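Worked example 2:
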Amino acid sequence: MAAYGGRGLHGQTVEALATMIFSGEYREGDGLDVAELQERLGVSSTALREAMKVLAAKGLIMARPKLGTFVRPRQDWNLLDGDVIRWKFAGRPDHGFLEDLHELRSIVEPSVARLAALRRTEEDLEALRAALGRMAEARGDAGAMVAADLAFHRALLTASGNELLERMDVVMGAGLAGRDRLVHGAQPGDDPVPSHLAVLTAIAEGDADAADGAMRELLAKAWGDLLRLWETPAGETA
């Protein structure tokens, strides 16, 4: 399912409800007090009901006739939904979730890099170079670094020439953005440009094995950065 793009009061209501769930205010199996939520959020019953439909479609809540609306068990949540991943990162995500995300990237992205080395077009290379240039210019600017990193990996998915892999952007993009905000926003990590340049160079040269290897090294470095952040007490820098 595509990431939710609602704005205005409707979007704010969806975000508020999701935050209550992912912060633990409402836990699995808890019932939602509709009247209390209406008053708390200052919205009509119609607005609240429409927002709940969004969360229900993502597997977070369900309505039971004559019983009310409840938070569904975690195993029912659509963890491949871009918004669900984003909401997970809104707080401090658990270590298991971060490890799952790293494993997913380790399975997908080396193969994507390999395909990109074999199928990339000049337009793909231009997009990758532009993203890398933005990354170099973004040193010291966490927000710009996150945007540049996302642009690079999205261009990489496109360069694979596989439409299904390209659609992984919804999952990979949300997860990567969350990971980047944790790392680049909390500590002055190592310069990411050299590892991304190694991937780009291998792809430009059409060397599939080198592209695969360079991506694995990039992901290992990214995981190491995340582990160092995770092991650093709040309020300190690594």
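Residues 234-238 have pLDDT under 50 and may be disordered. The domain at 9-76 is CATH 1.10.10.10 (Arc Repressor Mutant, subunit A).
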